User: What shape does this take?
Amino acid sequence: MASDVRESELSAQTGVEIEFLIRRINAALRKHGTSVVERYGITPVQFHGIMVLRHGPITMGEMCSRLGLACSTVTGLVDKLEAAKLVRRVRSQQDRRVVLLELEETDKAILREVLEERGKLLSQGLHHLSANDIVVTMRTLEQLWKILTVDTN
Assistant: This one.
């Protein structure tokens, strides 16, 4: 914990307020990216599925877990993405019984464009902060992410 903030000064309400601010920032970025997503004829939920696949092929079970949705719901989502030629199911080379989900090249272009648009919006906001504020914010968010992911895994 930072030395200039006493643990007794932190409360559950502080956590709620920080989460609320993060959610508001995320909502603004998502809203901005939605116009790009809609140009491609996909829904924000479908785009979220694409986002989950951006780091490489995963199993259906992993996708369900990352999206926090029932497998039946994710199956429908993947079926629609596959029909639109945005996602493909492929057999694992290590274990042919395992089916992996991976992005088509079209998805990679959509992903790049949406993330670029979101990045532009965030950059515009960051121009109103000092270089030091940006560095401190990045460092703090990175530390918080590491703490939260270690504690939950």
